[in-house]
Structures are given as C-alpha cells and as structure tokens.
Amino acid sequence: MIDWKLKDISFNSDNIAWHGNKHLVGNGYMGVRGTLEEYTKEQLVAVNLAGIYDKVGDGWREPVNAPNGFYGYLIVDDEVVKLPESSAEEHYVELDYRYGIFTRCTTWRLMRGNITLKSTRFVSMDDVHVGAIKTEISADFHADVKYVFGIDADVWDINGPHFDIIKVNSNGLMTVDAVTHEKNHNVSVAQKVTVEFPCEVKREEEINKAVASVSFITDLNKKYVIERYFALYTSLDCENPLEAAKEAAVTKAIEGYDTLLEKHKNAWENLWRRSEIIIEGDDKSMEALNYSLYHLHCIAPRHADNLSIAARGLSGQTYKGAVFWDTEMFILDFFIMTEPEVAKKLIKYRIDTLEGAKEKAKGYGYDGAFYAWESQENGFDACSDYNVTDVFTKRPMRTYFKDKQIHISSAIVYAMDKYISLTGDDSILKEGGAETIVECAKFYYSALIKKVCDDRYELRDVIGPDEYHERIDNNGYTNRMAKNTFRIAIEVLENEEYLGAFADREELIGKFSDAFDKIFIQQPDSEGVIPQFDGYKELEDVTVDEVRSRLIDPKEYWGGAYGVASHTKVIKQADVITWLAMYPQDFDLEVMKQNWNYYEKRTEHGSSLSACMYALVACMCNMTEEAFPLFTKSATADLAPGGKEWAGLVYIGGTHPASAGGAYMVAVEGFAGVNFKNGKLNVEPKLPESWKKMSFHITYKNVLYRVEISDNEALVTEVDDM
Ligand code: IFM
After folding, report:
1. Is the pTM of this model over 0.85?
2. Distance, CA 490 to ligand 1 centroid (Å)?
3. Which of 17, 349, 432, 524 is the most buried (most CB within 10 A)?
C-alpha cells in the first residue's frame, strides 16, 4: 500500500524548477509552486491564479502570478540563513498528495550550533482564497533568531511585470494591494500572524514586499511555532478584494491552523472518496496514478462557473495559462466519471466563449465557430503567430498553430457529446450547447474544399495533432473529427427542443448531411497503414534517433519550415492513433495493430499528450505489455525528472494535466476496460501483469458504481451516493 507521500531528501539546486512543479499545491483558484518560503522570483516562485490574465507591451498575454503569502526566511546571529545560498546540513521536502500538504525541513550547521526550520503549508480546498503555514524553529544553542515573513509582490513573470501599482502595508495586519497593467484588476493579499511565545514583533522594509519579523532567543531544543494565514482576492471575485482579504485573514487566524487543516483534509477526503484508484500488486503504478489525479484535483475550477483548465494547470505562466484541446480530449473523462459537476463547468467555459470563436472564424473568412487554439478569457486566442524562437538566429519563427489547428472546434463538440452520453444530462444543449455545436459544424462546412472534377470534400492546409508537419492536406484525425461534428450537429438540429424553431434548420441539416457523406476520410493502404495526411507516405523514412542526431542544438525546434522532422515521417505525437483511440469502431483490430506498430516507432513522443493515446490503443489491441510503459510515462510526467522543457527558446516547463488525465483514461478505460458500448456500462479488464487487483468508483448517468477487478474478472456494484 502507498503512504501518499513523496519525500525528497537532500538539497540540489538543479532540482528547483522541477520540484516547483512536482510539489505544487493547489485548489483550483490558485496553484502554489513547490518552492521554499525563502525563495523569490529567481527560483520561479509562483502563486498562479486561474482565469486572470494580463498583457504588458509586446509580451505574450499570460496569467497573473499573485503576491506570495508564504514568503519567509531566517536570520540567525545577524546572518541570513536560507537556501540555496546557505548550504544545509540536512534537508528534506515532502508532499502529502492525499491532502495537498507541503512540508520542508532544513537543518543548518552554524558557527554556534545547529538550527532547524520546519514548515508545513497548504492552500485550502475548503476555502479557496486561503493559505496557511506553520513554521517551527528549534536550535541546539541559544540562537539569536529573527524570522522575517510576509507577502512578496516582486513576483516571477515570463512576460511581466504585470503589476503597475503595488501598495504594501507592513503595519499590524500585513497587506499587498496590486493593480494589473492591462485591465486594472486588483489582486489583494492580507496576512495575519499568530505567535504564542514571548518575542519582539517588528515591521520590516523590503522593496515590493509587506514584511515583518519576530525576534527571540531560543532555549536549547525548544520548538518555536509561528502560524501565518493569508487570504487572496481579486476584483474578479468581489468589489473590494482588499477588505475581503483582510477579513478572511483575520477570521482564519481566529479559527486556527489545526481547524483549517482539518476542514481542508475533509474537503480532500470527499474528493478521494469518488476518485481514488486502488491497485494491488503494484504500488509504483498506484502512486503515480493517484499522484496524477492529485494534480487534476488541484486545478479543477470548482469555485467558478466559467473557467476551464490551462495546459500547464496552475503551475505558472507557461503556454500563457491558456486552455487547449487538452481539456476536452484528455482531461474531461476523469471529471465526467468522478465529478460530473466539474466536467459541466469545463463545457460551460466553451459555451461562454462561443462569441470569441465566432469572431475568430470571421477573421479568417469562415462561418461558424473556430475556437481559440490557446484560449484565455472570452475565448481570446492567445496563440502568437510566432510561437517558437529559432535557436540559431534568435528570431521568432512563424508557426501556424493558431491558424491551422482547426481540429480544436471538433474537440469541443466531441466533448459535449461525450458529456451528454455519459452523464445523461443534456441541459447544456439548452444552455447554449446546441448552438455551439451547430456553429462548429458551420465552421467546418465553410472550410470544406471540393475540386470541380471530384465529388469529395477535403480539408486542406491544416495542422493535425502532430504539430511538426504544418499546413498539410486531409489530416486523417481532423477530417474524422469534422465528420463527427457534422453528425452531432444533425442530431441536435433534428431535435427542435434544443434550438427552437428557426428558418434555415432544414437547409443546415441538408448541408451537414451532404458534408457528412462526402468528407474525405483517409483509408488504410495496401499494408493497412492509414496515411496521416496526403503525401505522408512519400516523406523520408528515418528513425526518431536519426532525426535527433541531426539536431545542431538540443533546443532546436523539430517542426515548421526548416525543422529536422518536417520532411520526414517522424511525428511529434499520436495523430492517426488519437483518431483510433476516439473511434476504435472505424477499423478492425488488425488495422489498429498495424497502425500502432507503424506509427509508434516513428513518434518522438515530444508532447506529453502522446504516450497515453498509444497506451489506450495498445489496450484495445490486447497489447497490455506494450501499453504499460506508455501508461507509466504518462502517469509519471510530473513525478519523474527529465520532461521536455523547451520548444526552440521558449520555456514550456510546468505540470502536465493532459498527461495526468491520459493516465486516468489508460487505467480506467484501457486496463480496466470501462466502456459504454450500447449505452451501458461495461467493464472488460486487461490488467497489466503486476496489477493483481484494481478497484475504483465511477459515475455513469448519475449512478455511482464501484468497480472491483480481480483475476481479470470485474464485479460492478451500484452504491448509494457517498
Ligand atoms: O495541446 C498541446 C499540443 O497538442 C502539443 N503542444 C502542447 C499543447 C499544450 O499541451
């Protein structure tokens, strides 16, 4: 059995960025990177906020990092003692991922003896505006201690600074009231400290920080406890965020650390009741899988109606804090099956951003809704025309993700359809979902191309999931997803209940039916291989290693006009295989296997979205052994070191929610074999060798089921809501 704790012993400054992601704590409203209290922006500290963005000058628009209410460090005998500068005698950090509690404990050997600082902190799952930290200091000599603490508003930004005004107050209740550049949002943090031992409390001065200190002389080996509570509100939350933050900080301090911790743990326990996955026989898999689910819980926007999940969750500003197809195609299943209320919010975000998608379509001369490739608030597409910087010239490279990844709209329709069929809740259709679906179909209809001499419809000049091959024709995945969009739009249009009566209904049904029938769908060639796009089979056939060996610089971008992979068959991530994972019924098992074998060895897996799709299809092909390492790769994307951190010169590090969601899909839909064929819940397990038993809960059509698998036999029981 696992202990739900990740402990990293000893200190290595090379791990600071990775541990920031690995030890993140979050509650959907904010994510706090797993950095130490004494760290500042140089060590990539971030209290990353959901759904609040800012743009400065020509920089990319990105989410706002709030002032850090966990800031604090030690001065002993007038000497600053902090990592990474002061080397530690002993050090560990620990993440309790059952409850999102981060602990650090460091001992420094100083001239007069040893001093230890241990702190434990969390951001509350019970009240998302609040964080609490308990610091314990002890020394084996009479140390002259000053603990400096407060709120650090000098935050890490990739394209900042985002605060034009920072007002700090270090008197009594500490506060920071900051104002963002573009839209003048207020971001306000208040902090209250409680100390129950004799000490001197003093206001301190540091630029852009609200700081104070407590000073005391330690008795030998006695523990001195300092508890701090911060509250964070923005002007998107309420009219007077500063007052709200002050009030909450004071109230929470009165409640006390232990009470807050208990409420926080209860909130987490409620989440695990429905989502924990127990695997007997393979603790490593169980740990990696539940740790992945931990990250999904940390970023679920439970507190809001109109927010979704960013591609790097709440781990920082990478990928502009934007929502990609990751949410619909990789993350949604977890929430549909464990917390459908959250799934509905993710869907609602797309309905609420329909206007933005219509604007985008219009801008390109299309009808309907072309969703943002990198979606921020109101559906604004944050994707830049120049999304990669060339390592050699340092010049921005023209990329076409925003213009050509038209498969994004189909992901939204696919997700809505899945949500409805798995929850039985079609209310979203009446709340704008039906219109969204029809607008997406209109978009694809207007993008279709037909040669005069041919009867088929094509989608030309696109980019599929494999982003290394840009501006290609008839990407198999895209065309298949567009066909599905037409099908769903027809179903919606045929049901008057969803859209009410309107004039061109019959005309649209006619158009979409024609498009459904005639859109070109790539077919397997004589060897059973489905070409990823027109002309794919004519590209140079080399191995991934060969392509890698051609790199002149390790950070070089593989795709685009001059990329090392562009003229080869080597692909970045699952493409045809993502199609097969979504529509296994399209081809027989032999074709699935043939394509898996063909494409897997030509895939770099340069995106964390890749391995899980291969693992899913491997499970469908009864290739559990091949699926297992790919599952592990997905489930450990944030646990193991060595993730891909650069695309050209652009930093793309952070957590990997899509990979976490993909790991869930592989475990539940792949290994456990949960499927919903013929409108009912079926469980057809194919557990990996090492998984002796597996059990979990899922919600299907509003009924909660417990699934227990043993010897590849499944027992499914309905349970009362827990
Ligand atoms: O959405 C993905 C894309 O498929 C590959 N590049 C990273 C994006 C965000 O995860």
Report:
1. yes
2. 30
3. 349
